[in-house]
Amino acid sequence: MRLIAQLKKTIRQYSMRTKLTISFSIAVITILMIIMILLSRLVNNYYQEKILFSADQSFEQANSFIQNYLDTMIYVSDQIYYNNDVQQLLSQNDLGKFQSYGEQYRDFLRLDSVCRTAELVETIYMARLFVPDQLTYSENMRHFEKMSVLENRKDYEIFLNNGGGSFFTAPEMIKMPGLNYEVEIVSLLRVILTTDGTIEPIGVQQIGIQTSKIKSVLEKSEITKSGIVYLVNSAGEIISCSDENNDLLRKLKQAGELPWPASSDSWSEVTVQKQSYYMNQAQLDSADWSLVALIPQREIIQQSKQLESIILVLSFAAVIAIFIVSSAISKYYTNRLSYLTEMMHEVQNGELDIDLKIKESDEIGDLFHSFSYMTQQLKLLMEEKYRSGKAVKTAQLQALRAQINPHFLYNTLELINWEAIDHNVPEISEIAKSLSQFYRISLNKGMEIVSLEKELNHVRAYVNIQNYHFDGAIQLYIDVPEELLQCSCINIILQPLVENSILHGMEETLSGEEYPIYISAKQVEQDIILSIQDEGTGMSSQQIKDIMNMKSLKVTGYGIKNIDLRLKLTYGEQYGLSYQSSVGKGTTVKIRIPFQPYRSEQQIKLDE
Predict the structure, then answer these.
(1) What is the pLDDT of residues 204-224, one digit of tens each?
(2) Could you tell me which CATH class the domain 447-607 is placed in?
(3) Coil, strand or helix at 509
(4) CA end-to-end distance (rounded Å), the chain
(5) pTM attached to this predicted model
(6) Quick one: CATH architecture of 32-304?
(7) Which residues contact 230 (CB under 8 A, 6 or more apart)?
């Protein structure tokens, strides 16, 4: 009580200006500190949320890339699985037993060509077939390996227990013929079954990619220094990780405490080695692999502490400024601090594009500048995290675009055509011309709208190519009135239907027997009805539903459902596909589109 009385006595001796300065400063400083504390907490939480958001985006991109690698391996596996040469040669009853060396060598060349073609896919490092030991080319080791080698693999029993389906191996070191170094790969092992209906195993294929590709994706998905992203299978084996020298990973392996993915699909808190981490996981389709990310909480806290330090420094600067100028312009500075408080609330509400109108350059003006700098730095940091995540997808898009060079494709096909003519091989010349026409119409300079005549030429080119597979058995009959040929339609709507008719309808057609396909068109009021009719095996009503819902394995290319959706999205719900079919009698597909005259590319661009 005596201390309070002495303090009051001292204050009474001060001038009014000093009293106002002290009282104003105490009030303003108290309010300012409360604001700064709240701002510190809000910004800290907001910053942590943004870090986890950026980490989640990087994690999703890594998951997408790795899933794309797996899908590519399965796609290449399907190309080998359903290849005619593979099915024909490996299903021979006397394979390797009574064949001469010449016959085996011819078989080797055909199978080796299939594997080489598979390896042309950028992601694929190795394509190999496991064949009976008695074959002379079973020790080729580049594209062939003995079946006994497969049986001696330590994961062979696991592969068998998997039923011979798609089985992804753990990482292994291999040395390819002609190379003096080893490469680490992960592989897809898959039993090849006959496709003639007997479903008998005739071989095993192995599709491999380098783990370095997966590691590169994982490295780019890291956003913290001591965090880690790794890929693990159901047996707890590490497929790949972002940093093999990471202290956390080394400790986990030594202690045998490798975190197994949780059931949650979002970031959750886990304790590893008595330290807290944020963990996220995703189960990959088609493989027993899980992608796991661990981010130390202390690292996020340390980064957010830097913001708290900045806020603390700004708070001290504000206190000094208030004591210096409050005695002279207390009301003026109260208005300015109120304006600053309003801006802070906008930042608290997530509005970082604030416009601070600063005219003065005194201490409070410095506070405005510092606060503006802080918000701008925070905004730049968020934008940088966004750009770093976007750069990965941009690189993938550029890579995909670079793979398609129409001019190079056309020039190459033209070269093949002339080489075939020079060497008197008209069949190859005809295939090259048909394929060139097929892709010219398919790509169509990026335009989606073509004339009906071009769409029919697209089908003719496709059937010409297919007839080389089916010995000219496909007979295409087109009955379209002259006045409808220059009508417009979206591209690639007839070819997938003809392809489906060939693949599905010809499955029971005898070899050498003609298979007719009829395409007709007629105008009904303001619409055009296109019909594709075959005399194939036909379908049940359930099979038609499966096709329209993209459940049929017989449907390839764009997918029938996708064609129907494209038609409806382009022209309206009243347009699209309809099926009429009877088992054993054939199938008729009808396409309804509006009657619209075709306009050239130049006219379309002029209208736009």
Answers:
(1) 999 999 999 999 998 888 777
(2) alpha beta
(3) coil
(4) 86
(5) 0.47
(6) 2-Layer Sandwich (3.30)
(7) 218, 238, 239, 240, 241, 242, 249, 291, 292
